[in-house]
Amino acid sequence: MELLVGKTLKELRDWAVQKGLERYRADQIYHWIYKKWEDDPERFTNLSKDLRRWLKENARFHALEKVEKVEGPDSVKYLFRTDDGHLVETVLIKEKDHWTLCVSTQIGCNVGCTFCATARDGLIRNLTAAEIVDQLLWVQKDIKDLPKPWHKVRNVVFMGMGEPLANFNNLKKAVEIFVDQKGVDVSKRRLTVSSSGILYQLKKMAEDPVLSQVNLAISLNAPDQETREKIMPVTRTNRFEDLWKFLTNYPLPEGRKITLEYVLIKGVNDSPEHARKLARLVAPHRKRFKVNLIPFNPSPTLPYERPSEEVVRRFQKILLDEAIIATIRWSKGQEVFGACGQLRAKREIPLLGGGFVKN
Ligand code: SF4
Questions:
Q1: How many CB atoms lie within 10 A of CB 140?
Q2: Where in the sequence is the domain holding 111, given as residue range(s)?
Q3: Within this chain, do residues 176 and 34 fall inside the same structural domain, yes or no?
Q4: Do residues 227 and 273 lie in contact, with contact meaning Cβ atoms separated by under 8 Å?
Q5: Average pLDDT, the chain
Q6: CA-proximal residue: ligand 1, atom 4 (nearest)
Q7: What is the pLDDT of residue 355?
Q8: What does the alpha-carbon distance between residue 77 and residue 89 come to, in Å, rounded to a whole number?
Q9: Which of 60, 84, 107 is the last residue of a domain?
Q10: Would you call 340 a catalytic residue per the annotation?
């Protein structure tokens, strides 16, 4: 069975020609998969009956199996299973007037941020491009009949499980598929890659013709080497000063900003002094950056606490007083454990065939 999800239009055309089909058949199939969100070839009505039957017998339209969907008031968490039995989480977040989809790129992660539940077991493996793309396809299939604008995912953020840039080639291919106007057609302005800030990977992103055109978010979480090293060990080899220098010179597309994600953790990085340090860094570059403050979501497996609302507001005010754009994300998805750094919360999930997967 040939897996068709995760193929670019060119790859699909090559496959069709190889199978003795006309090239335009590939374009029709591409349209059904990536525009109409259809996964049953019986419903590809502009194809002949024979071809539909042949596709049914010879092609696969999902790389993942949908296992569970948990709905909260402002987010929906989807749980998928890979062919080799791993679980992947995807969170659909309801914003004021659109959906944002938070996509995973790896199973586990080896970056080791101490405030992150995903880091617990290290990296198990990268997701394939098909597994990354299929998260969106499943969700789209689920919401496509809702009234506008809720019938389509508008924004995509690569902020789920894993460090996206550590899975560079598959990330790049998934992004290519997402932004293709003939298919999924997510605007490059509405697609964000969030990274922990590993410098050689960021340099690759800056030099890549596709990835350099989408938004960049950096999980900064501290205004200096010492504080960042405590919660993000990756800072030992990717020095704060070097990261900052790189970010202030990053070749930004016209009119864009880099988002600095800052998870506020009680007693660790949330003091007025931390805020003032951050303000001093960002203020000279206020046109280039915006700060997104994310109060930490307590988790039974992590030794940290969320600061009070007063502390969060005080931190924000110090930035605002310097005319820095600073928003607070009272993390949506918390009620389904889908908030940043909390994917893969400890749980047991019944397998369809019996037994349990411990995750
Ligand atoms: S916060 Fe992101 S980069 Fe850090 S360990 Fe978690 S998944 Fe990896």
A1: 20
A2: 65-358
A3: no
A4: no
A5: 91
A6: 113
A7: 28
A8: 7
A9: 60
A10: yes
Residues 42, 180, single domain; the answer is no
In tens, the pLDDT along 51-93 reads: 999 999 999 999 999 999 999 888 899 999 999 999 999 999 9
197 lines ligand 1 (CB under 6 A): no
State which ligand 1 atom lies nearest to the alpha carbon of 196: 3
Assess whether the C-beta atom of 238 lies below 6 angstroms from ligand 1: no
Question: Do 131 and 211 share a domain, yes or no?
Answer: yes
Identify the CATH number of the domain in which residue 225 sits: 3.20.20.70
Looking at the fold, whether 132 and 16 belong to one and the same domain comes out as no
Q: Of 109, 167, 218, which is best to mutate to test ligand 1, by the most ligand atoms within 8 angstroms of its C-beta?
A: 109
Instruction: Establish whether residue 113 lines the binding site of ligand 1, counting it when its CB lies within 6 angstroms of any ligand atom.
Output: yes
Task: Inform me whether the pLDDT recorded for 316 exceeds 90.
Answer: yes
* 22 catalytic per annotation: no
Q: Note every long-range contact of 137-140, with CB atoms under 8 Å and residues 24 or more positions apart, other chains counting.
A: 137/5, 137/33, 137/34, 137/37, 137/39, 137/62, 138/62, 138/64, 138/66, 138/78, 138/80, 138/90, 139/78, 139/90, 139/92, 139/101, 140/37
Residues 37 and 108 grouped into a single domain: no
pLDDT digit string, tens, across residues 189-233: 999 999 999 999 999 999 999 999 999 999 999 999 999 999 999
Query: Averaged over 12-26, what is the pLDDT?
Result: 94
The answer, yes or no, to whether any atom of ligand 1 lies below 6 A from the CB of 107, is no
Whether 151 and 207 map to the same domain: the answer is: yes
pLDDT band at 351 (very low <50, low <70, confident <90, very high): very low
